[in-house]
Amino acid sequence: MKTTKQFVMILVAAMVLVCSTGVFAQTQDTSANKVRQRLAAKTSEPASASKEDTKSKPNMKLVAADPSGDPLKQEENHENGQTASATKTSLPAAPDDSQANRHEQASEEAAIVPYYNNFFNTYRIGPEDVISVSVFGQDRYSKSGIIVPPSGRISLALISGGVFVNGKTVDEVAEMIKKSYDEFIIDPQVSVSLDKASSYRYSVIGDVAQPGIRLMNRRLTVTEALGEAGGVLQTGDRSKVVVLRRQTDGNLQPIAVNVSAIYKGKAPDLVYLVPGDQVIVPGNKFKSFQKVMTLFPILSFARIFTGGF
Question: In a 10 Å sphere around its CB, with 0-12 CB exposed, 13-18 middle and 19+ buried, how is residue 276 labelled?
Answer without folding.
Answer: middle
